[in-house]
Amino acid sequence: MTDPLELIKPAVRALGHYTLPPRQARVKVDQNENPWELPDAFKDEVLARMRRAAWGRYPEFVPRSLLEALARFAGWRPDGVLVGNGSNELISVVLQATVGEGVAVALPQPTFTLYASMVKTLGGRVVTVPLDPELRFDPAALLAAQREGARVLILCSPNNPTGSHLDEAALRRLLGAWRGLVVVDEAYQEFAGWSAVPLLAESPHLVVLRTFSKAMGLAGLRVGYLLARPELASELDKVRLPYNLNRFSTIAAELALERYDELLAPLVARLIAERERLAAAIAALPGFLPYPSRANFLLVRSAWPPGEVHAALAARGVLARDVSRYPMLAECLRVSVGTPEEGDQVLEGLAAFSAGKTGGGA
Ligand code: PMP
Question: What structural domains and CATH numbers belong to the chain?
Answer without folding.
Answer: 4-37+263-358 (3.90.1150.10), 40-260 (3.40.640.10)
